[in-house]
Design a protein that fits this description.
Length: 280
């Protein structure tokens, strides 16, 4: 059974992506868009992200749109899972084998937040090349939802400092604000990022089977993280809720049609970036 923590290099890259917006020049593939480097536009996009982030913070206490009810349900589910975390982990560990390990590795790989940034860039770029405004918008939404979900989980991870299952098998070991990859288990960032993607892609899809496929893939990622002994069940549940919340909030903001400048995911060689763009 693999018991390595989330690679430090990938963790560092993720933090850089979450904190820094790369401003890139236009290429021929994006001839319909204009990219900027002005401080004023950067500030404007930051305000949009601030509004979305504020909604992420406010929604759990929202009594008018069932936000509080949802938060109570999630807290109850995560709390119940916490009680049985060690009991859930035991059979998973006992029934582990090489085949299951390989399957779990696949889940962990497709759930990597950096992969999701790349996916956002591919969806956006494909939409540009195909002349599809729908998929350009979907790519933008994916980039923002993943960014919000990853940022939210990162803050919680480091603040809570929960020990990963492989450390000593004790669900109650916490070392807050230590910035130690062995103690950043709660919540699961892979799961949060995957459910953010599932939420956005599900909203962009009309078929029930497609929606089910996206959420099944996200669930597979969460279970894989448990099989890999990287997370407790309660970590996965909270991560899933955060990802779903971020996906829905980004979708709602885009539906309002008030965005003038957007975060556009971009693929360049082997790198994935987020660039500021505006169209006219």
């Amino acid at each position: 059974m693999i018991t390595r923590p989330f690679p430090k290099r990938a963790s560092v890259l993720l933090r850089v992506l979450a904190a820094f917006i790369a401003l890139l020049p236009i290429t021929r593939a994006f001839a319909g868009e204009k990219f900027f480097s002005s401080a004023s536009i950067t500030r404007e996009e930051a305000l949009y992200l601030r509004d979305e982030a504020s909604d992420v913070l406010r929604t759990p206490a929202d009594t008018e749109h069932d936000g509080l009810f949802g938060a109570v349900m999630v807290a109850g589910a995560a709390g119940l899972a916490y009680i049985f975390d060690e009991n859930i982990r035991k059979p998973v560990r006992e029934h582990g084998n090489q085949t299951l390990d390989k399957i779990a590795n696949v889940g962990s790989s497709i759930g990597n937040p950096l992969v999701h940034i790349g996916m956002a860039g591919m969806v956006y770029g494909g939409g540009v090349l195909a002349g599809s405004e729908k998929w350009q918008e979907t790519g933008k939404m994916l980039g923002e939802a993943v960014l919000l979900a990853d940022a939210a989980t990162l803050v919680l991870k480091e603040s809570i400092g929960r020990g990963r299952p492989y450390v000593n098998g004790d669900k109650g070991r916490f070392k807050p604000l230590q910035f130690d990859s062995d103690y950043d288990s709660l919540p699961s960032m892979h799961t949060a990022s995957s459910f953010a993607v599932a939420s956005v892609m599900s909203g962009a899809s009309e078929g029930l089977w497609a929606k089910a496929a996206y959420y099944s893939a996200a669930t597979f990622v969460g279970l894989s993280r448990m099989v890999d002994d990287q997370h407790w069940a309660s970590d996965v549940i909270l991560g899933a809720a955060i990802g779903e919340l971020c996906g829905r909030i980004v979708a709602r903001h885009h539906a309002n049609g008030k965005r003038k400048f957007v975060l556009a995911p971009i693929i360049s060689g082997n790198s994935a970036f987020l660039g500021l763009s505006a169209a006219w």
